[in-house]
Amino acid sequence: MSGISILMYHQVGHFPPMKTHRASYCDVGRFRQQMRVLKWLGVPVISMSEALACLIGQRPMPHRAVVLTFDDGCENFHEHALPVLQEMGFPAIVYAIAGLTGGRAEWLAADGHPTPPLMTFARLRELPAAGIEVGSHALWHRRLADLDRSSQRSELVDSRQRLQDELGCAVPHVCYPYGAHSVTTLELAAEAGYRSGVTCQRGAATPAFDRLALPRKAISYGDDAFGFLWKLYLKDAAKGEALRRARVD
Ligand SMILES: [Zn+2]
Question: Of 77, 113, 121, 228, whose CB is crowded by the most CB atoms within 10 A?
Answer without folding.
Answer: 77
